[in-house]
Specification:
- With about 230 residues, the protein is α/β, with parallel strands linked by helices.
- It has three domains: about 130 residues, 5'-nuclease (Rossmann fold, 3-Layer(aba) Sandwich), CATH 3.40.50; about 55 residues; about 30 residues, no CATH class.
- It has seven helices and eight strands; from the N terminus they run βαβααβααβαββββα.
- The strands form two sheets. Strands 3-2-1-4 form a four-stranded parallel sheet. It has a four-stranded antiparallel sheet with strand order 6-5-7-8, with no helix packed on it.
- The longest helix is centred in the middle third of the chain and has 21 residues.
Length: about 230
């Protein structure tokens, strides 16, 4: 049975391996499609991926991914970057469609669309992980933010916990299992306190300070300009 609430982005290797995407909406890029021009590949697409749509990401999405990769040790090809950019772009569109502020519950979970990437390329997987996105196998996971001092959960990323005041907020994954929200904590994960500094490199120790207000104002202006 095909999942109408899932969108798949698929790479060359996944197509050649005839990966079962389990959804009607399947996308790839023109670059991937061009790598699959031989007779055998076209037969696979014609038999297995009849609904495959070829779509290129916007220049803006490609720019975002390239900027993200500037200080990363990544050797992604142009085709890989375009594929990640397409996944990023569709993911953003689906977030807007779902409503970013909607609290995910066991009741509405099945109505919310997911976007998954089908790839076994470790380079692509590493970039997706860095972007906070998920490849195939993690499509049911979503993220919230947890203070590891007092364990309060937040929907949005914040610097200081509103309950205990510490800079101990970390992103954690959740899944819905048997109708219950379950937290996914990585084994051996080392939790570290955030280090927040002003423009002069001085560490900001608490939220209720002039320095932190200036920091937030500067952060918002940078986000707006980007």
């Amino acid at each position: 049975m095909l999942n109408n609430n899932q969108i798949a982005v698929i790479d060359t290797c996944a197509i050649l391996k005839r990966v079962d995407v389990g959804t009607i909406d399947v996308y790839t890029t023109e670059g991937v499609d061009n790598e699959l021009r031989d007779k055998e590949s076209r037969e696979i697409i014609g038999q297995k991926y009849v609904n495959l749509k070829v779509r290129n990401p916007s220049e803006e999405s490609i720019r975002k991914i390239r900027e993200f990769l500037i200080d990363k040790k990544s050797n992604l090809s142009c085709v890989d970057i375009e594929l990640v950019a397409l996944f990023y772009e569709i993911h953003r569109e689906v977030e807007e469609e779902n409503g970013q502020d909607e609290w995910i519950t066991a009741e509405n979970y099945r109505k919310i669309k997911n976007v998954v990437m089908h790839t076994d390329d470790n380079g692509i997987r590493g970039v997706l992980d860095g972007l906070g996105l998920q490849e195939s196998g993690l499509s049911d996971k979503y993220y919230k933010y947890r203070c590891f001092t007092c364990f309060r959960i937040y929907e949005d990323d914040i610097d200081f916990c509103k309950s205990c005041g510490y800079k101990t907020i970390t992103r954690v994954g959740f899944i819905i299992k048997n109708g219950t929200e379950v937290m996914c904590l990585k084994k051996g994960y080392e939790q570290k306190e955030k280090k927040i500094c002003d423009k002069n490199g001085n560490e900001i120790g608490c939220e209720d300070t002039v320095e932190y207000k200036k920091y937030i104002k500067h952060k918002k202006s940078k986000k707006y300009l980007s």
